[in-house]
Each structure stands twice: as structure tokens, then as C-alpha cells.
Amino acid sequence: MSTHGTLVGEDNRRAKVLDPALSPRALYGAELRYYRERAGLSQAQLARLIYVTPSFVANLEAGRRRMQPELAAVLDELLDTRGFFVRNLAAGRSTTDPDRAASTTPLESRASTVREWDAVHLPALLRTEEYATALARATDLPRVAALPRARSDRAGHAAVVTETALRRTVGSAATMAAQLRYVATLVREDRLTLRVLPLATAPHTTTQSAFKLLTFPDDVPAGYVHGRDGWTLSTEPGLIDLLGLTYDLLRDTCLPPEPSLDLVEAVAMGLDVLGP
């Protein structure tokens, strides 16, 4: 008999759809654990079959990782679920909190290193509450506030930003100036390594408008790529290598760290002159 009730009846299981309001990732994790145990597999054995680490499987079962479509299809076939994971993918990738849906902070807070690139705006983890709110009002993006205590207290946080993003005023001049001073403070406190891609530099050709590359002490690297439907998580080695190479190429065309900081502070001072 299952420990999570009517969701896991075996022979007479109906093709039900999970309610996204009922902690979908937790339900997804419970279902994965049920099907894995039904197949007589340990987390380590399942991990070997799908080419991930045991901690990756553990995080899926604990609801700390989002289920990706490709993995859902593999698990359905491997665990003979009659299509459960693909059928309930919308629920498994949703959340009752739109801010949490757009933010990758929980995973980033466990990372040893985080490297970020954003061609248009300041990266999400660098944003102040005021900047993020103003950005949401001006665009179709959800509000994603920076959470410096969760991420920017580590030496492994690095970002490449464009001079265009620095000079694109989001909200009032005062809001933008405060945002840039916040970034400068992170750099001066050695909580962030920042490189700025200047206007005079021909931009590196990349199809990714924004991405994040994360490494962990006890797990495989992960990458978040931003597209029309929001952030997508991947641990596919080929994509991780491509993101790493792209980041290195972008960084190598940027200003060095000290001139990058000088530019951030100079733009902030110019905004101060403009006033509120």
C-alpha cells in the first residue's frame, strides 16, 4: 500500500492529472519515488540508467528540481508509468507563486559557482527589489528580486553585463542609480566578479539572450537558459560545455574588472545628477 494515498494505486490507477495548486513538485517527487521503488531500483541505480548523479534523483524526489520534458519521457518509458510524467508535466513544472516560478535562486544558493550573462538587463541575482519591480512593470517579465544573502555572499559569483544594460534606465533615475551602486558594493566587498561588455565592442554572436551556469561540490553542473517560455534547466553535457565556452568568449571581450567597476560607478553618478 502506498504512503501517499490515492495518487499511487497500481493496477487500478486512473489516468489522473495533478492539480497544480497542490505543491506539484512535491507530488511529482512522491510519484517518482513510488515508481522507482516499484521497479526495485535504488536512487543510485536509477541515476546510472538516466546518466545523472544519485543526488540529482534525490533532488527530483524532494521537489528541489523541475522535471524537464525530455527526462519525463525517459522516466515514463523506463519505469512503465503509462505516460504519467509527460501527462502531468504542466503540473510538475508549475507553482502557486509566480515569483518563485521565475526565480532560480533555491538551486543557485547551493552552487559553488554561478556565472551569469544577460544581453538586455542586469542579471536576476544582481537586481534590487525596486529595479525588479520597475522591470516587471515595463516588460512582460515576472518580478524577480535579487536575493544577495542567498547567493552573493560567495566568491564564486561572476557576471558579464553589457554597457547597454547599465545605461538603460529601468524605473526612475534614482532607482537605477541605487541599483548600480548596489552592484558596485557587491564588487567592492568581493562578493561578485563583474565584467562589462562596452558599447564599442562588437557583441559576441550568441543565440542566448541570458543564461546561468552553475557548478556544485557534489552534483553535475547545471545550466539555465532563458527563452520565450522563461528559464529552462539542463544538465546535458554538450549544452553545459557550450554555455561555458560562450561565457568565456564574452568575458574575454569585456573590460577588465577595475575599469568595469569604474564604469558602473560613473553611470550611477551621472544618474544622480539627473535626480529622481
Explained architecture:
The chain is of the alpha/beta class. It folds into 2 domains: 21-92, lambda repressor-like DNA-binding domains (434 Repressor (Amino-terminal Domain)), CATH 1.10.260.40; 98-274, Endonuclease, Chain A. It is 46% helix and 12% strand. The chain is built from 14 helices and 6 strands. The protein has helices at 24-38, 43-49, 54-61, 69-79, 84-87, 89-92, 98-102, 105-108, 129-138, 148-151, 163-167, 173-188, 237-252, 257-274, and strands at residues 113-118, 157-162, 193-197, 210-215, 222-227, 230-234. The protein is elongated. Mean pLDDT is 78; it is low at 1-22, 94-104 and 143-152.
Briefly, what is this?
Residues 32-85 form the HTH cro/C1-type domain. With 276 residues, the protein is an alpha/beta fold.
Note the main sheet.
6 strands, mixed
- Helix/strand order, N-terminal first: HHHHHHHHEHHEHHEEEEHH
CATH architecture descriptor name of the largest domain: 2-Layer Sandwich
Number of helices: 14
Total DSSP E strands: 6
Principal-axis shape: elongated
The rounded Rg comes to 21 Å
Helix content: 40-55%
Organism: Actinacidiphila guanduensis
Pfam families: DUF5753, HTH_31
InterPro entries: Cro/C1-type_HTH (IPR001387), DUF5753 (IPR043917), Lambda_DNA-bd_dom_sf (IPR010982)
Protein name: Helix-turn-helix domain-containing protein
